[in-house]
User: Fold these one by one.
Assistant:
Number 1:
Amino acid sequence: MQKQPKYTFDILIRSETKRKNFFKQINRIISGLRDEGFYEAASYMIDQRDRLQAKINRLIAA
């Protein structure tokens, strides 16, 4: 039996707390990449995070 994902797109749209925690985890990953010197990967993750935040915000506003 497959495990349910902790964060699904619907949950991120409906629950502000889960959304904040999700983005906190992403920010921790980005910080870790920067600390280890993976600046290009961190930059890519920042771009993807920003795109996801914009998409979620558009769906919430709709």
Number 2:
Amino acid sequence: MDYTITGIEPGAGITETTERALEEYDNLQDWELETSSTAGMMGQLDSAITNEEPIVVTGWTPHYKFEMYDLKFLEDPEGVYGDTEFVHTMSRIGFEEDMPEAYAILENFSWEVDDMQEIMLAAQDIEFEEAASNWIEENRDTVDSWTDGVDEVDDQSIELGSFPWDSERASSQVVTQVLEEHGFDVTLSNVDPSILFQALAQGDVDATVAPWLPTTQGAYLEEYGDDIVDMGPNMEGTVIGLVVPEYMDIESIEDLNAQD
């Protein structure tokens, strides 16, 4: 492992949290966080597991890697990564008044970790758009519960924001297609979390179903929260932390060896 944690993009919330972990844990003081991309992290994880080598990666659920490999989260006694995370729906101020139908659908939007993970796994072989469309058709009762009693609109434009990661690609594609079925003309932009929160606060984006709270994007909510409407969780039971293969004989972040 070369005293290295394999991470993802520099702008990701879990990247910033892991940088704090390197400071909080005495045994990690001389470790390094290698940032790259989600695809890069997955490539290194696959290579390590194929050769049964040790590796530590930044991880979160839902993610399809837990369907592909036997993995475990390391215990976090310092609580750097927080407890269970929630994925929230948020909007700009005035969105409910301007687009009551879209607001109602997004307020009703709620699903499970397994739902998102199912789309993410399917999207390894097909496009996210197709994976989301298939999920919608197979879960029509759930989708209908989000739109029940909401009037259709006629080609009303709406701007959605999201993050450029697989978990958010799953949720944003589902919401985009459900809104389109109801008559909306949806523009979806995938941007860095800091840019999305700023855009919501400035009214440049109408809504999002992407932010993870209270830990992952909590700092951005603290900065911009007075100018954003938090519509509440759309998913619960998500987790972030450090992840290792089951074959590694460690259970806690504190079990990682310090550099001599």
